[in-house]
Amino acid sequence: MEDFSHNPLATNHEILEGIIRLVQFDILLNDYVAWLDFEGDRVIIPRQELELYEIKSTLNHYIGMKVQFKIMSYDEQRRVYLASCKEIKEERRNDIIARLKEGESFEATITKIVYFGAYLMIDGISVILRNQDFSNDYTTVGDIYHEGDTILVSLLKVNDNMKINVQAVEKYETQSSITIEDFEPQTVVYGLVRNVKSWACFVNIAPNLDAICPVPTYFNVKEGMKVAFRINQVRLDEGRVRGKIIKIIH
């Protein structure tokens, strides 16, 4: 019988690569794990070691996925290696943050478009691009791009939980001649919810022009939603527009 304790994997701290073959519940770890068959050795990656952040969904979408990992330890009784993808991603994330802070821009790939913007991937690390950091008007990421497209981004901020927010190097802006002087009370316009506070909503209705309105109580409004906005007041001297959200556009 092979002596696994002398297998070079047990002390190998290099980055390895393998394909996840199955996902199952591990009684000892009391959670689901991903299994790899790596060069004849059994390797398991616990749920909390797959990603930088907590995975709340099932692990089924990892089946067949090629991942990079490092060996953490060896369980002699079970004859399996415990591995981590998280450690590699932490090192890579820290490197990307350092380079972004130095002013470097990256071609990021759009992996998922959501109502508030999009999730992008930079060298295997997920970052967030919000609509308001993509364009100067009501244009959303999804209006211009598709999943799989790339966009040049730079650093906006790093949150306390180490999530990376980026901004488009060149913000998109619709070629429009509409200005605040074109709006009148009772006009209904197309807009994009930029921000939702406890006391008000900010809705972009023209390039570089956000209108303000009360937070609706009759439906739930979120950042990134497209809405119909009725103008109630135009203050040219202050450059302000006030009104009301009357409909969510799906």
TrEMBL record:
Please list the residue ranges annotated as the S1 motif domain: 103-171
The record, for SUPFAM superfamilies, names: Nucleic acid-binding proteins
Name of the molecule in the record: S1 RNA binding domain protein
Q: Which Pfam families does UniProt cross-reference here? A: S1
Show the PROSITE patterns listed in the entry: S1 (PS50126)
Which species?
Turicibacter sanguinis PC909
